[in-house]
Every structure is written in structure tokens, then in C-alpha cells.
């Protein structure tokens, strides 16, 4: 089977990772990271997980959308405890640096230790949510960890639509408490999250011949950090699509710049790090355009120097394209992207330092007579999510776009009276001699969706410390994984009686 050949081929690559403590968790993580698992392309990782459960002799099933459920009976003396569900998602965000030669479809993630962190070489690491998956795998294969009857729920497609959680039918799960292992700060216990909606604005345009007497440039924005469009949206990180549009706006206004192509950003849930554009200007403006482009580039870099010290904004001569956008459409598109809200829209009035509503202007493509702009709008308040979505819709419709709202999913309403929350708070304080942060997050967790079909299930979320999720700078703290594992084992011992 392809999956297991890949695992063997990555044994040496992940050798140093497998020596870390707790070894059972890191070995499972290394095995998992040898398997391709992009969102909506989870066939191999589903087969891997099904085989994992069957080899353990445990009841293992796949539901109609591809979620994998593995059931393990309670250990000796734990049969009177409330049955639980331990849940993480199988898919990961596939992102790589522009100069990295890597095929996510055939290669295992190339991991290494960098001081206190585990990282990947030029790609996302998959700690989101692979560390949660690995911890559950380690518990399933253990012979000496006390736990109540448990169901391991491995969902698919969390990162690009949460269709796994949405497709899980009521009545499949038997557990009454859900432990979601997808939080990214080891001192936090999550009790709520934002919902989201995908916004796609598209339109066509007529292509025109390139005007005579022009010179062409490739504009390139790179070196941005990127990051999680929920957890990192408040940090003031640069957005490659907005920066590129700023450069285009100035070039068009001052020198009649014409756009041939744009390719900016990637996935909706990743803050865009890179953008390229092919443009032309009249040769008579060459010297002035290059001077003012570089001046504006320095201004933008100065504005973002604290958060984005590696930002690069360049214009290099290139071959003249055959066509450019029609002038009227180009002006409307540039204006619409300039006007479209990106970043924090509203902070929560009820929880300190919580982003309530935001938008990530994630992807911009212009080519062959078609324009597409993709956003992800998040909010913990449904009415505010709708308000921002309509703001964006109106912005793009004014420029002649058709706007589609799709993939909406609900937030998770905090329950401060949750019984399992009390267990985790007490256990955390006892283990680590400090109080945990009980929070709601601006990311999308699957708890709210799962709660629609399992409204009586008591849910909580926690996990190890992960930085730079959804970007090639993703890393997981080694000591934090040890803390997370210790916390998990103690939680399992103290699950309340039925």
C-alpha cells in the first residue's frame, strides 16, 4: 500500500523526532506525517487510520462522509465512568515557501528539531491538528493508560469547510463528553469559537491587446509571515493581496499601469504571504514608475517592519504578455479590492481581547478573462458575521462581481457551567500550580457543528502550544507536548462517574 511505503521511507527522516518524550505520541505523529493528508484529499490518511484501528483489534468504522471512528472499551475499574469522545481532524493545511521543492501528494513532512521546537523544512508541519490525532492514537494503542469507554473521532476536511463535522449524523456517537484536542495554547481551555462563511466574488472581463510602446514587469510580494486567519488575524500581519493591490492602485493612478495577470494568496484560512502580478506601462514612464514603485515599497515595508521584517516588494522587467484586462473592469476590480475589508472588524464586547468578527482577503486571481476573489469571514456572533459578509458582498457587487456565500458553519456558544470544564480547571491548577485561561477563540473549532446533532454532549477543547499554524513557519513546542500529554492522562483518570 502506498501509505506504508511512504512511512518506511520517512523513518530515517523522522528518527530524531521519534526520540522525543513522550515517545508514543511523537512516534504516532511521525507515522501520521508520512501520509499525505490535504483537505479534501484524505483518502490515504483515512485508509491509514482504518488500518491502524483494525490492527489494534478495535471496532473501527468509517461514516458516509469519511470520518473515522475507533471505539475502545473502558480499562479495568473505569467502567462506571461517563463514556467520552476524543476528537481531532485528520487533514492539514498544505503550504510551502516559494523556493521549496516539495510534493505534498507523494512526500512525508520533513521534520527537524530547532531548540525548543519541532518544525518542518520549508512547509507546514501539520501539528494542527496532527498532535491531537497522535495523542489519541497513543491512547488507543496503549495497554497501561486508565480511561473510560472512549470513541476516537477523526474528522476530515476541517480546514476547508468542516464538511466532516457537518456530515457526522446524530446517533453515531455514544459518548457524553467530548474532548477536542485542537487548541494551540497549552495554558488555555477553550469553551467557545467563531463561526464562518466563505465569500467568493467572481466576474469576467474582455481581454485587450497590449498597448504599443509598453514595457512589462513582474511584481512580487514575498517574505510575509502568513499565519492562521483566525488565531493570527489581530496581530497586524501583512496581507500580500492588499499590499499588491496598493502597488497596483498607485501604478494605475499615476502611470496608467495595465494588469495582465495576478496570482495572490492560497487557502482561505491562511493569511496570504505571497502575490505575483504581470503588468505593463508605457515605456516613457519607465524611470519614474520604477522610482515611485520603490519609494512606495519602502513606505509599506516601514509600516510593517515590526511584524514583517522580511517583507520584499520588487518589480522586475519581464516578457511582454499578449493581453491585458479591459480598462474599465481593471479600475473597478482594483477599487473593490482596495475597499474590501481585511482584518479585525469588531472586538468582542463581552470577552476581553477576543476578536468577534474578522475577514481574511485570502486569494486573488486574474487570468484568461476571469477574476476571482476569495475571503473567509469569521464571527462568534451570527448577526455580525452576516453584517460583514453583506459589507463585502456590496463592495464587490458595485464593481460588477457576482458574489457567492457558501460553506457557512456555526460558532460554539460558551458554556461557563460545563461539568467537564470544572474537571479540567481543577486538574490543571493541581498539576501546574496556576489557573488556566478559560477562553473562547476566533478560530473555527468543530465543537459548534458537532453540537448541532449532539446538543447534550458536554464539550471542551485544549492542546499543546503551536505557533505559525497554516504557514511554513508552523512549529510545536516540545515541552508543551509533554505538558499536554501529562494533562490528558490526568483528565482521563478523573472523568466523572455516570
UniProtKB/TrEMBL annotation:
GO terms for biological process: proteolysis. It comes from the Bacteria. The keyword Zinc applies. Residues 222-306 form the Peptidase M20 dimerisation domain. It catalyses: Hydrolysis of dipeptides, preferentially hydrophobic dipeptides including prolyl amino acids. One of its GO terms (molecular function) is metal ion binding. Its EC number is 3.4.13.18. The keyword Cell membrane does not apply. It is an enzyme of class 3 (hydrolase). Belongs to the peptidase M20C family. This is Cytosol non-specific dipeptidase. It comes from Zhouia amylolytica AD3.
Amino acid at each position: 500500500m502506498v501509505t506504508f511505503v511512504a512511512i518506511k521511507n520517512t523513518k530515517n527522516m523522522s528518527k530524531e523526532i521519534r526520540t522525543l518524550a513522550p515517545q508514543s505520541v511523537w512516534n504516532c505523529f511521525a507515522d501520521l506525517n508520512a501520509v499525505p493528508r490535504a483537505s479534501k484529499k484524505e483518502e490515504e490518511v483515512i485508509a491509514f487510520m482504518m488500518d491502524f484501528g483494525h490492527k489494534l483489534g478495535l471496532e473501527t468504522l468509517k461514516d458516509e462522509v469519511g470520518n473515522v471512528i475507533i471505539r475502545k472499551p473502558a480499562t479495568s475499574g473505569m467502567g462506571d465512568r461517563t463514556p467520552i469522545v476524543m476528537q481531532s481532524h485528520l487533514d492539514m493545511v498544505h503550504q510551502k515557501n516559494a523556493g521549496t521543492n516539495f510534493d505534498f501528494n507523494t512526500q512525508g513532512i520533513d521534520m527537524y528539531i530547532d531548540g525548543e521546537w519541532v518544525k518542518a523544512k520549508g512547509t507546514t508541519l501539520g501539528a494542527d491538528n496532527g498532535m491531537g490525532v497522535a495523542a489519541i492514537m497513543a491512547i488507543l494503542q496503549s495497554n497501561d493508560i486508565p480511561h473510560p469507554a472512549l470513541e476516537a473521532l477523526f474528522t476530515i476536511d476541517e480546514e476547508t469547510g468542516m464538511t466532516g463535522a457537518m456530515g457526522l449524523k446524530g446517533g453515531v456517537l455514544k459518548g457524553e463528553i467530548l474532548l477536542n484536542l485542537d487548541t494551540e495554547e497549552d495554558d488555555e481551555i477553550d469553551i467557545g469559537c467563531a463561526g464562518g462563511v466563505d465569500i467568493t466574488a467572481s466576474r469576467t472581463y474582455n481581454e485587450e491587446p497590449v498597448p504599443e510602446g509598453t514595457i512589462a514587469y513582474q511584481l512580487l510580494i514575498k517574505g510575509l509571515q502568513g499565519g492562521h486567519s483566525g488565531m493570527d488575524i489581530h496581530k497586524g500581519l501583512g496581507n500580500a493581496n492588499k499590499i499588491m493591490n496598493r502597488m497596483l492602485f498607485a501604478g494605475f493612478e499615476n502611470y496608467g499601469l495595465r494588469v495582465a495577470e495576478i496570482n495572490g494568496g492560497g487557502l482561505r484560512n491562511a493569511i496570504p504571504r505571497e502575490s505575483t502580478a504581470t503588468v505593463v506601462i508605457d515605456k516613457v514612464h519607465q524611470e519614474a514608475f520604477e522610482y515611485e514603485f520603490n519609494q512606495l515599497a519602502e513606505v509599506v515595508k516601514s509600516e510593517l517592519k515590526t511584524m514583517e521584517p522580511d517583507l520584499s516588494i520588487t518589480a522586475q522587467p519581464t516578457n511582454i504578455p499578449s493581453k491585458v484586462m479591459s480598462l474599465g473592469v481593471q479600475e473597478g476590480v482594483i477599487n473593490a479590492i482596495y475597499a474590501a475589508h481585511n482584518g479585525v472588524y469588531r472586538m468582542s464586547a463581552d470577552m476581553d481581547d477576543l476578536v468577534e468578527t474578522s475577514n481574511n482577503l485570502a486569494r486573488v486571481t486574474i487570468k484568461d478573462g476571469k477574476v476571482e476573489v476569495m475571503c473567509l469571514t469569521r464571527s462568534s456572533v451570527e448577526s455580525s458575521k452576516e453584517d460583514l459578509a453583506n459589507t463585502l458582498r456590496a463592495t464587490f457587487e458595485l464593481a460588477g462581481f457576482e458574489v457567492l456565500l457558501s460553506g457557512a458553519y456555526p460558532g460554539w456558544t460558551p458554556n461557563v457551567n460545563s461539568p467537564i470544564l470544572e474537571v479540567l480547571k481543577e486538574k490543571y491548577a493541581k498539576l501546574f500550580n496556576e489557573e488556566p485561561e478559560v477562553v473562547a477563540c476566533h478560530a473555527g473549532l468543530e465543537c459548534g457543528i458537532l453540537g448541532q446533532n449532539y446538543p447534550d454532549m458536554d464539550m471542551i477543547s485544549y492542546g499543546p502550544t503551536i505557533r505559525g499554524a497554516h504557514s511554513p513557519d508552523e512549529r510545536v513546542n516540545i515541552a508543551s507536548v509533554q505538558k499536554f500529554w501529562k494533562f490528558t492522562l490526568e483528565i482521563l483518570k478523573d472523568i466523572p462517574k455516570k
